[in-house]
Amino acid sequence: MPQKRYNVIECDTKEVVTQCSDEYEADLTIAQLVDVNPNKQYKVETVEVYDSDAFRYGRDPELH
């Protein structure tokens, strides 16, 4: 099962500023960044992260 992460990106440089665990946290982060740097634009990009260990467990079809 993939998890969603939210990257806060500065629009001018396309640089990832931070990665948040939920959309509300990302919106709060953008609000704080705009307060500090009012001349910069930020956006949120959703990224799906897959856990590689999640696919290791389960039934092995070659054993049956």
- Total number of domains: 1
Q: How many E strands?
A: 3
Assess the beta-strand content as a share of residues.
25-35%
Can you write the helix and strand succession as a string? Answer: EEHE
Terminal CA distance reads 25 Å
Mean pLDDT: 87
Could you give the order of strands across the largest sheet? 2-1-3
What percent of the residues sit in helical stretches (DSSP H or I)?
10-25%
Spans with pLDDT under 50 lasting ≥5 residues? none
* Secondary structure tally, helices: 1
Decide which structural class fits the backbone: alpha+beta
Report the radius of gyration as a whole number of Å. Answer: 18 Å
What sort of overall outline do the alpha carbons produce when their principal axes are compared? elongated
- Biggest sheet details: 3 strands, antiparallel
Gist?
By secondary structure, the chain is of the alpha+beta class. The protein has one helix and three strands.
